[in-house]
Amino acid sequence: MMARTARCTCGQLSITVEGEPLRVAVCHCLACQSRTGSVFATLASFPVPYQVTGRATEYVRTGDHGTRFVFRFCPVCGTNLYDTEEGVDDVVSVSVGAFGDPSFPAPQVSVYDCRRHPWVTLPPGVRVFDRDPPG
């Protein structure tokens, strides 16, 4: 099985996952725009197990449906590297850009399309949701 490693900008924090992503998604919500400093976040979900090396700072945010997400940042360079959903112990989501792999699979899902900047074009076949679908 193929292993992939994503790293923060300074290299202090990394996460290694195995296999192909379960899902690759982009989120255009204002919280993700603020969190990433970009106009959307791109996350790939992977099954456990995963291995983290280095120290991380945590930030917990509650989503629209009451779900609590725990975001992990590098305390040195500030890179938001990965997150988990409280109560979901079998999946981790990793920031796609941190893999440094231009051949990484394209997103299949786009959420909060109501907040998507009009000049952002999605790849063909992406399933689009106006907001975050429950569940």
TrEMBL record:
Tell me where on the tree of life, at the top rank, the source sits.
Answer: Bacteria
Is Flavoprotein tagged as a keyword?
A: no
Question: Which keywords annotate this record?
Answer: Lyase, Metal-binding, Zinc
The keyword Lyase appears for this protein? yes
- Looking at the record, the residues that make up the CENP-V/GFA domain are 4-113
Q: Which InterPro entries match?
A: CENP-V/GFA, Mss4-like_sf
Q: Which residues cross the membrane?
A: none
Family named by the database record: Belongs to the Gfa family.
- The protein's name: GFA family protein
- According to its UniProt entry, this protein's organism is Pseudoduganella flava
